[in-house]
Amino acid sequence: MADLTVRQRCRPEAAGSVNVPPVGRLKAGSSEQVVWRARLVLGCLALVALCFQQAPGKILADSRIELTAAPGRFLSRALHLWDPHTAFGQVQSDAFGYLLPIGPFHWLLDALSVPDWITQRLWWSLVLCVAFLGIWKLCSVLEYGVPWTRFAVALLYALVPRVFGEFPIEVWPMAMAPWILLPLVSPRARSGWWRASWSALAFALIGGADPVAGAATLVVPLVWLISHAKLKLALGWLGFVVAASVWWLVPLALLFQYGAAPPGPRWLPVIGVVVGVPLAVAGAHYLRRLANVSVSRGVSRRVVPAVVACLAVAAAAPVVLLRPDGASAAIPAHWNAAAAWLDDQSAPGSVLLLSTTTEPLTALVKRPMAALTADVQRRVDSGVGDQTLRQELNHDGVRYVVVRNDLADTLAIHESLADAGIGRVAYFGPGGPTRIAYPSVEIYDVGATTPGRLIPRSRLVAVDGTADDVPTVVTALGGSGSAVLREDNKLDGLPLIDTDVSQAVDQQPSAVVLRSQQIGRSGCLHLGVRALCSQDQAADEPRGLSRTVQLPQAASYELRGMALPKDGEALERLLPVAGAITATASSRAVTAPEGRPGAAVDRDPGTSWQADPDDPKPSLTLKLPAARDVRGLRFQSDTYLDGSRPAEVALHFDGGGSIRATVDADGYVRFAARHVQTIKIDFTATKPLQDAHRSPVGVTEVAVLGADELRKAVDPDRRVPSYCGNGPVVRIDGVAATTQVAATMRDLLKRRPVPFSLCGATSVSLRSGSHRVEVLAGGGVVPIETTLVKAGFGDVSVTPVQGVDVWRPNPAELTVEVPDADEQSVLAVAQNYNAGWEAYDSTGHKLTPIRIGGWQQGWVLPAGPEQVVTASFMPARSYRAGLLLGLVTLLAVLATAVFFPKRRTGRSIRR
Asked: Taking every annotated instance into account, which residue ranges of this chain make up the domain Alpha-(1->3)-arabinofuranosyltransferase N-terminal GT-C (predicted)?
């Protein structure tokens, strides 16, 4: 750190040295001062030009897309501690920190209809110019260096953060850092009140969006005050700093108390804030000395300035040369259209965006947004959908699901939604650069839902597990109720459902639900009836379940579960059709049945065989049930087949003679009629299906001219023969038990979950203590969920779960009309649980809060007639009071800075 305790005054040097007036401060009104002011203006214009040359006309990625998309709406939400719009409702993260000055800056330019990209560049320009002028002014006041060295280090100080700072919010504290120190070191006769208040105002202008970096700007001023023994001024200054920061300090404290801690800072900008100013001041001083030393040793006086100029160019080069990722000319019109469509719908419910990237939809839509939970993410990524997915979304209050198709292949998501019965209702934008040209944005309707539910006590269970276990538990027990996690349970006597079987329980579980954390994914996904196969999309399948179950008492449990069809021989043995052509191959690209060799002769245009990419001599062998007169073949390739078409083939008949032939444009190979039973096809040359990429050969169907009726399709509605042993392998304490599955061929081919159960006696008797339960793959299926249900459990009350409407007078309050209830119930609202919410019934009685499903807000309601429940987020009052108090104290600091005498008085804080 430069020694700020000593001012360096310039003295006349030997002839030829780089120097300007004998003192470091330019004389007011001098021609040289006018020249340097002009140069400062040119420096700022250069920085502005640098900002505007980067991706002109395009919006750059920012940490807060709302600042450009909808700054007015963003600032309006920032005035409330609770944000019901985002992620099932949550405490504001750092939005309050943008209330000054970043938010108003963007709001004003938006109100003036300034294009978004220009607003972004103007803010960057302001940041860089403030940093540039701040270092120039600070070096001049401290009389460090000479004008050209001050100009050089100021320019470098502004440029370097622009290179390393990804977003302007990270650079803004560094830009304001010299202005915080400047009033404290001013050489003019100033009162301590004046110095402390102006420095505090500069600190207030940093805002609270990055509190760690903001606090780091106080390090250098505090060191300077302490090193100069100005303890009284330091205490007064800290008081002013706190007063000017109340408007974001109070919200920050409430955020730590009622919400999650804000994201951790990027430490590179924080370190830059601490060391940047001292390095810049030292640079101005030592550059002058270096120039003088170089001149005294006979080096041209222009060498050092030239080197510094090269450094400045090098610092600006990345900004000039590199093209930023994620820049766009504007928010695509299809996002605005999707947001408008969603807001036009009258049906209640939130919107779930199936994407982990920053999207403009959150800033554009008024309808509340849901959060993508780990369980939903796992289910949609697997390509396996069932009613559990739809039920989970319905209980979460999600009405619409939005799929973004322009960034990644979303085939698995589409199949999961289709299998769950969730249909598309709207789409917007052009097709993306993916395998299937889906529209850019699609909207799916989950079905009728309500933002609140009244759950009778008899429909509740306590789950010993995690929030991700709850959807599986609720589905396994019938799907009509709900659950609380054991640690959140405030209702005595709820049935216990054990999922965390690693620990002993002191209560006899009414059921034990074991689920696989890994669903896996087949190498073939589906688009309607078409199977799209690829080695890249396959994921490891689970092998089964193996758990140790602890029971405090002996009991009998019924065992049942759900399993997924498993790729392999066991499954494919069920597929051949009597009297049909069969096929074998030298290799195959995927193990899924849709990509088996027999797919080439199953009369199903949705399935295809494709050779392994590493197969040097791919071949396909067709065997007829009996010898027939055959006169040719026809190869058919689906447009979406991830392979190449046959171009030339070598045909071998019954292991004897062979011919070589070219496949014509229509896929035909014709030859003189031959009486054969086996035809081996060697693919000796291929042609690309869609582009120039040479992928492995593949065919959708091979028609045998003269015996084409022997290609027979698998009946998708044919039920799989159900017999003991065609289900998963079950062993309890080493004792095997047989199971059976009930499924159709469609279920197996499309990899849909199928139920399985024990053969014969459906229940097993278990003594108290520890039991090893193993449910492993078998019969062509692999278990993903197994339930042990205590005999007699499940005869629950017929009282249904009722949906209720929720009204929000403002973000921090809600009102619910609750129907009459014959038993104790729980009022659940589809928003995140937070201890700050308090609810009261119609009589003014405070209700007991309870967390539902591991995350939802709920309150316990006694039985009684219809009533109105009101709830408020109590910390919101402190939040608004903190903002108001912060405004008052900030104005007080401003008044002190403007109206307090500039010169010292006897009543002022002594400098």
From this structure: 47-259, 273-512
